[in-house]
Write a structure and sequence with these properties.
This protein is α+β, with helices and mostly antiparallel strands. The radius of gyration is 17 Å and the shape is globular. It has a four-stranded antiparallel β-sheet with strand order 3-6-5-4. It has a two-stranded antiparallel ribbon with strand order 1-2. Helices cover about 55% and strands about 15% of the residues. The protein starts with a strand and ends with a helix. A hairpin with a 2-residue loop joins strand 4 and strand 5.
Amino acid sequence: MKRNVRIATAVTAGMLAIGGVLAGGAVAAGTDDTPAPGTTMQQQTMTGRQHHAERHGEGMHDARHDGSCTGYTALAAQGTLTAAQKTTLADMAEEEKLAHDLYTAFAARYDVHVFERIAAAETSHLSAVRTLLDRYDVTDPTAGKPAGEFTDPAVQATYDRLLKQGEDSLSGALKAGRTVETEDIAALKKALSGLTAPDTRQVYTNLLAASERHLAAFEHWIAAE
């Protein structure tokens, strides 16, 4: 097993705080808050919030009434990845960064909470993928890359296209979000096929559930437009 890696990210400018001892302890799960149109942060926080804890992997995972999750989940045991699965893992890092960077750009442009909250969730998702990259000695293609820049030319082209689409209108930005989550869901389902490594299956399963919540949130906002 690789050495323990400690991750701690401060809450700054709306970013999600995540932290934990990885490869030997607990890893922080993401927070996916997707308030409905017209709902303020204070209303979302103060109105009718119900919690229920459910077992997930080796740790506890708290699910919230809005489909979001918060809490700590212990990372499952390391397994074995094929060369192709390691390539897929690196691709996942770029996809999570694309989602984060795109939603952050839209959050700065539009006064719509859905982008800010899902961008914060993508921060923890990328950290989870980076933990796997470290465990399996896979080079992180997102390391040192500023916002909006990617190693894979195809990912760069996709980001540039969706950013342009979202800059034209709020409707275009919401539909760009829908495209990202739809494509992520398809990629994660494909990546899970034939995958046996417990920790990687755990992370991909969590990411899949999050993308499904995010897609539902974007669909909701699009319908309300």
